[in-house]
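Progress note, project year one: complex with coenzyme A.
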Amino acid sequence: MPEDVEARRALGHNAEISRMFGAAVPVTATMTHEAAARWIDRLDQEGVVAWIVEAEGSFLGSARLHSFDGRGGARYAVGLLDARRLGRGLGAETTRLVLDYAFGPLGLERIELVTLEINERGRRCFERCGFRTVCRVPDAAVIDGTSYDDLLMEVTRSSTSRWS
Ligand SMILES: CC(C)(COP(=O)(O)OP(=O)(O)OC[C@H]1O[C@@H](n2cnc3c(N)ncnc32)[C@H](O)[C@@H]1OP(=O)(O)O)[C@@H](O)C(=O)NCCC(=O)NCCS
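Model obtained:
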């Protein structure tokens, strides 16, 4: 929708957020209308279940389930793109809603995600939602010339009474 494109454009690129996504050189910068439109278009891909996240009536980011493996597993990715609204519980609320849908209507058994070891805010948010770290991938990203590990995290339907 045009208002989503404009809202995405208005948030632009934020260095702190780009760093958590593993950008090689995180920068704070404006975004063009065309780049914002491409960003919105990419949500609509075959084999991906995607949501635009809104909070308090305005655009905040996206959440996606992708890489469905046909055996009850899928991967989760989330990005809240307004630095002023991070760390206020909105990521945990988004993640719980996605897990409700994944373990409910979608009937999935296992959701994985990958996050950088330096993303403490993300790790704590995901742990609060039931994810546990199952392995570490060394030197998965190089940011500003320094390499960092990825953490592979997982939550299963059976690991929590909420969905069993
Ligand atoms: C990761 C993300 C979804 C988390 O959502 P959020 O709304 O910011 O996080 P929440 O407020 O739900 O939870 C944050 C947790 O980290 C803590 N926290 C908040 N700010 C923090 C900071 N600067 N450093 C470390 N921990 C922090 C909070 O206390 C909370 O932990 P608790 O539940 O144990 O108290 C969101 O920050 C985000 O999208 N970030 C940018 C992109 C990204 O990192 N995506 C994930 C890649 S896998």
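Strands lie at 49-55, 58-66, 73-80, 110-116, 132-143, 146-156.
The chain has one domain: 2-159.
No further modelling is planned for this target in the current period.
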